[in-house]
Amino acid sequence: MSPLVLLIRRYAALTEQEATLIAAEFEPVDFRKDDYLLRAGRVCEYYFFVERGGCRIFHEVGEREITGWLAFEGNLFTELQSFKSGRPSRFSIQALEDMRVWRLPRPAHFRLFQAVPGWQAVVREVWEEAFLRLVDGILAFQTETAEQRYRKLAGVAQRVPLKHLASFLGITPTSLSRLRAKK
């Protein structure tokens, strides 16, 4: 069973047939390191499932790029505001390494809402997890040191360039270099 089907079935009590029907609407796409899955100013037209690799979701403030989210293997995500509204995104999504993603076009997503009610449960579970991750991140910024937040990223820290990881942690690259040297 594919990782995408396993993920879909983890989130909702779907039959194998329903999960396979959902997965069949996704299309595989390969991205090279530094390619954009989405550029700010464009409408987000897809849900993405990361089979291999990782990416960052960021926005620009003046000359600075602020990394707000990281997605790696097994993540199902989209830039929700743009995807739902059909308005241009404020965010960009960029591959941090070579990636294989499966993407679900907006029209197929809305078709699946009607054809397979379990798809709504999958999406709800994904966004509940994302919300909880966001709350944890906010609390971490309020109650933990940069070193504590960095240690929580041990599994992916080596896969994210220093400047993007520092931005995600809300510190300077120099401060992050000092944290890494503390090992």
Automatic annotation (TrEMBL):
Pfam families: cNMP_binding (PF00027). Residues 10-113 form the Cyclic nucleotide-binding domain. It comes from the Bacteria. This is Crp/Fnr family transcriptional regulator. The lineage of its organism: Bacteria, Pseudomonadati, Bacteroidota, Cytophagia, Cytophagales.
